[in-house]
Amino acid sequence: MPTATITSKGQVTLPRIIREKLNLSAGDKIDFCFDDTSNRVILTAKNKKVADVYGLLAHLALDKPVSVQEMNEGIAEYIQEKYS
Q: What is the pLDDT of residues 5-34, one digit of tens each?
């Protein structure tokens, strides 16, 4: 697991592997969200354009449409498995 150190000014340099996975570069914006139930911080890239991520999930295409309820259930299941 990548590790970073907080400087005396409260700054952190994101490890290269994390920047690469999120496709981040200098000047990009990120959001931090604290999850009280798991005591974890969730980092989200915020300045990606739709064109940057268009087709990113094409390899996951299903034969049938998925309802919003099924999407929400899948997301909740993933989060529970990943962060519990």
A: 999 999 999 999 988 888 888 888 888 999
What is the DSSP code string of the chain?
-------TTS--PPPHHHHHHTT--TT--EEEEEETTTTEEEEEE----HHHHTTTTGGG--SS---HHHHHHHHHHHHHHHH-
Q: List phi, psi (to 5°) of 46.
A: -110, -15
- Phi and psi, residue 70, nearest 5°: -65, -40
CA–CA separation, 57 and 51 (whole Å): 13
d(CA 81, CA 84): 6
For the entire predicted model, the pTM comes to 0.49
d(CA 46, CA 53): 12
